[in-house]
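Run log, item B.
One chain of 338 residues. Sequence copied directly from the ordering sheet:
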Amino acid sequence: MSENQSGVTEDAAEEAQLLARNAQYLIATAARAPSVHNSQPWRFRVGEQLVELWSDPRRKTLDDPLGREMLISCGAALFGLRLAVRSLGHLPVVQLLPDPAQLRLMARVSVGAAAGMNRLERQMLEAVPHRHTHRGPFLAGPLPPGLLAGLQDDALAEGATLAFVGDGLSLDRLTRLATAAGRVAGLDPGERDEILRWTRSPGKPARDGIPATALTPGTSGDDEPGRLPQRDFDLGRGMGRLAGGGAPPAATAVLLTAGDRRTDWLHAGQALQRLLLHAASMWVFASLYTQPMENPLIRELIRDQLVLPGNPQMLLQFGRAASTASTARRPVGELTNW
């Protein structure tokens, strides 16, 4: 064997073991993704040559009968996994839904060609620890120049579209529809049970769910100009520790996909995490509104009344904010031992 051939073989062996050697880091980075109610509905299997991302239907919420939100959450984790592979100096190779006989298998990720991270990727990786779903008050002030256009580019790069909703009639329509969705959900006795399942009392140790430090004491948005109504996680318990008020959101947007199937939901999740990390790298955060998206009729009305070019998957409002402590995450061992 020549010296060149020996070097190539050694490089191939090094790449083959790259994922296994960095399994803890890869999974921890992926698991910092947002998920509905911080349910973290994902699992991972790591081999020498690939990482598999699986959904965990036991953590699917009752409001999500088709698993749409679960797959969006898994898509967000997939983008984090891809970003972590990029930080190891390689392009990720991704197979979405690779085995029709394994409906829980979301993706397989392997190591591709060597390539260094670009500046934005490094900034997004640095934002992973402090990115969080924002439920408290926004700070006054405009967003960084060019950020909104950059977020739209992020969505397009992941096979989705980010459509901004202007003030006036469009925002009024969206607010009315979001409010109607909240009223309908409030009539469902299962809604309260699901909220109780995923909220955590002050001082109670937890590795999932939404802690009191990430909640407002009531339905935020009702008396805040420009703010969409948020789901009432407090339920009159008075345990929320976030203050209300603050400045209006700087921008309101709808994340869209051309289709509305499992692949589209995974693309939506990857787009969501990508644009959230981009925004967080500039200390801009987003409130996410899932409740209106859980009602098929409301989703259709949002699409039709706002004349949107696709299927709505997520509502977001952006603004500046001082970073809060990120919500808890399950340990890596719990995500892999199954």
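Observations after the first pass:
- The chain has eleven helices and ten strands.
- The radius of gyration is 20 Å.
Flagged for discussion on Thursday.
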